[in-house]
Amino acid sequence: xxxxxxxxxxxxxxxxxxxxxxxxxxxxxxxxxxxxxxxxxxxxxxxxxxxxxxxxxxxxxxxxxxxxxxxxxxxxxxxxxxxxxxxxxxxxxxxxxxxxxxxxxxxxxxxxxxxxxxxxxxxxxxxxxxxxxxxxxxxxxxxxxxxxxxxxxxxxxxxxxxxxxxxxxxxxxxxxxxxxxxxxxxxxxxxxxxxxxxxxxxxxxxxxxxxxxxxxxxxxxxxxxxxxxxxxxxxxxxxxxxxxxxxxxxxxxxxxxxxxxxxxxxxxxxxxxxxxxxxxxxxxxxxxxxxxxxxxxxxxxxxxxxxxxxxxxxxxxxxxxxxxxxxxxxxxxxxxxxxxxxxxxxxxxxxxxxxxxxxxxxxxxxxxxxxxxxxxxxxxxxxxxxxxxxxxxxxxxxxxxxxxxxxxxxxxxxxxxxxxxxxxxxxxxxxxxxxxxxxxxxxxxxxxxxxxxxxxxxxxxxxxxxxxxxxxxxxxxxxxxxxxxxxxxxxxxxxxxxxxxxxxxxxxxxxxxxxxxxxxxxxxxxxxxxxxxxxxxxxxxxxxxxxxxxxxxxxxxxxxxxxxxxxxxxxxxxxxxxxxxxxxxxxxxxxxxxxxxxxxxxxxxxxxxxxxxxxxxxxxxxxxxxxxxxxxxxxxxxxxxxxxxxxxxxxxxxxxxxxxxxxxxxxxxxxxxxxxxxxxxxxxxxxxxxxxxxxxxxxxxxxxxxxxxxxxxxxxxxxxxxxxxxxxxxxxxxxxxxxxxxxxxxxxxxxxxxxxxxxxxxxxxxxxxxxxxxxxxxxxxxxxxxxxxxxxxxxxxxxxxxxxxxxxxxxxxxxxxxxxxxx
Amino acid sequence: xxxxxxxxxxxxxxxxxxxxxxxxxxxxxxxxxxxxxxxxxxxxxxxxxxxxxxxxxxxxxxxxxxxx
Lengths: 823, 68
What we know:
heterodimer, A: 823 residues, alpha/beta, six-stranded mixed sheet, five-stranded antiparallel sheet, 28 helices, rod-shaped, B: 68 residues, mainly alpha
């Protein structure tokens, strides 16, 4: 796995960086801590935003603004005439290898393009670098502590390098979601079909048993198998002399019943026998229709379901609002919606959760759907559809078929309780008509039986029993085959579901184990980092429950207390220190492909002492080159005290510092040789008469030079120097230098030439009288370009008092080693 | 058909893609017919690009093929 460091960032036309035709180019030391300072509103956070867009494709803080703010229109610099933002990033591999340059652009329509070297998938390259710890700011740390345990756990999963594992686990769990899977494979329909077919098989079997008994006089259940039963049925017909010719050479199911009846008719009877046969057949059919198995209890059961649905339906407000609620719920659940007490339709701020309100509305619709499904299932399970045949048999020409219509629409329209009552009444009418018809048939049959010889009647009954047996066995075969297919389909579904369940459970267990393992490795390092920042007897603990994704934060030690809540007890600085420790510890152990970390103003909640501790932790324990193999750190800061520390660290090596100057309207430029660049621009501004622009830079230059003198000749400063009020610092430094010079003079150890000592007072007088005195009182309108140019020269002359020519005659001047030693 | 119980562990020294490959190879022992089919969709599933219905249909189709 190649690990990548960031060697250059070039930005034009993006956020607060205009730089039209002259991009802001930041050269970064891959094997160095890189600090970048800028005053507020100079473009420091725009660098962070640009990197965020390049790596992640969006800037959440803009996207999460209310729609009326039109955050998407503020990705690009509003002063850039071409309305196109360009971010060029150059990465170098750890060790040796060719650099990779990636270009990311965004146009005014929000279109993003990413390009890189031929053969490289630039989007995939950037995606691989997008790890949670790569871009860190104060808000990220604050959110991490304030988040719910579940959100913090998910974030932490990303920190541990487990985000993709977590994503796969969630996808696998979605695949074995029971409701979604069952809907897709129509599990409910299959269950209903199975129940219906089982009932059909049972009915056919019972009818076949009755027909077999009538034909053969023995029980079907006593036959050893189906083949034996068919032989027995065949024999029952074949033994009748008049039918033998129609049975010979055939199996039972191939005997043509109509031929048998014709033979009987020819042999023994005439039209009366044929009519008897028809009547017997008709009686069987009507008997079957009337003997519908539905009971009053069945009717009450489906009516109760219909009444439940009616009640649920009354709580809803139609399909249009259903769609509206569903859409609103999606909006509220999206990351882009800031607050679930704000209505997504009218943006009215409510005093309760709109999401909960909509959930309650949608629940009514779900109840309606569930009730409709229950009605449909009940309809099939109890065999209501059989009433269609009854209706078909008994309906009059001018009547509408109600059961046929209901059967056709039961899945889509369900039933109301009132409709159930109507149908039940209609069923009663149909049964009454069928029973009346049955009475007529029975009367005619009785008359014919009296008219015809008994033998003929019995023979015809026997042949009709054979016909029913043939029919029922055929229907039984058909229903049994269909049932077998449904059962097989259910078995396939069950097998797939069980397989997916096991795969998902297995992967979830592996991810959980990896998470625990990595947490165990991260925790001691996190505690070490936390201790290095805070230097207090407080020990944080990261707590992961046995199940679930959450991550709890506690304090295993808080002075003399044990196992207490981190969120409840810790002050903001401690909380931030804890978050910083967690992120840096995770990045130390599980950085993966990106080997750089960008930190944007992460010290704002710390006092100067803790800022120093944090920087020292980064320098010595976390970042390269202090920590071999550690990440490259890029620090963005507006803090002037920190900048002094950065400049000091530059002298120690392994640290590169740049200062940004400029405005969002014009250009932001790096000051790689900050002291000289500030001097140059100050002089340039003064020569142009721009006193107001020059004055803060002159102040900055004076601070730089005094610190440079103090650091170079090792002048002791008061212990509260770093914490002192900003406006008093320059005077404090001048005083410290003056005291040190006097001390060495008194001890006769001062290395400065007498002329240099004399020049000190004159230059201090110029600096104080023409600049500091007015600056301290705020009367800066008294400044003039000429007097400030004099102050600039006095600052240089003052610094030169602490330098000597070395080597002699070279013209090069360097600081004395100290006030008492030349070199 | 009862699925076979096996265990799987993430190797911390390997990349996600390497671990995914190992996990993929472990699917066939769970179900010889379904394992390879799910394995062929695993990359898309990991990327969040796989449609659930297509994965389900592919798994069910594999069992239909076996039957025929």
